[in-house]
Amino acid sequence: MFPLMVAYSVSSPPSHLVVGTMALVGGDVYHQTLLLLLWELKEVSIEFGLCEIISKQTIRIRPKDGTPWFPNVSALEALLPTAMIDHSVDCIYQELPPWEETLNGARERYRYVILALADKYPNENLLLVTHGEGVGVSVTAFMEETEIDDVEFCAYSQLQRKICLKDSRVPTAEPFTVLTDIGGSTGIRFSKILT
C-alpha cells in the first residue's frame, strides 16, 4: 500500500528519472519483480513524500490518532538486501503528510519531491517508486497542457534533463523533458488539453 522508495544509481546517462508504481508486498511476484529491478541500483532509501495520498479518497478508514498504522521503516527496509539501504540520506519529508490532505495538495507534494530529489542528486539517475497519482504528476508537472487519462498498475514515466556546470562548478539544470510515449506503452495514458 505504501511503496515509497528512492533508488539511485550512477549508471549512464546521468540525469535520467523514472517514476513508477509497484507493490512492495513481501514474498509475492511484485516484491520479486521490484527486487530484480533494484538489483542493479547503487542505493535505496525510504522517502515519505512519495507515499499515497493521505485522505479518505485512498485510505478508507482514518487512522486513529496516536495509533501506529504505517509500517515501521525498519520493517520496510527488511524487505530489501541490507547492502542496498542508505541510512545517510536525509529525506525530503521527515514523516508522512498529516491527515487529511487535498488532491491538489498531494499533487503539489509529488511535484515538489520529484524536483527536490532530482536537484539533490543532479548527477545520478533516479528510480522513484510511488503511487498512480505520483506517476501522473510526473507527466503533468513537466509537460504543459496535459491531462492523465489512466495510470495502470506498475505504470511508469521517464523524464530527462540536461545538467550543466557553470564556472562556479555549481550544477544548473534545464527543465525536464517527458520521454514517456503518449500512447500508453508504459501503462500511463495521457492527452493534450484542447483549448
Automatic annotation (TrEMBL):
<protein>
    <recommendedName>
        <fullName>Phosphoglycerate mutase family protein</fullName>
    </recommendedName>
</protein>
<dbReference type="InterPro" id="IPR051710">
    <property type="entry name" value="Phosphatase_SH3-domain"/>
</dbReference>
<dbReference type="InterPro" id="IPR029033">
    <property type="entry name" value="His_PPase_superfam"/>
</dbReference>
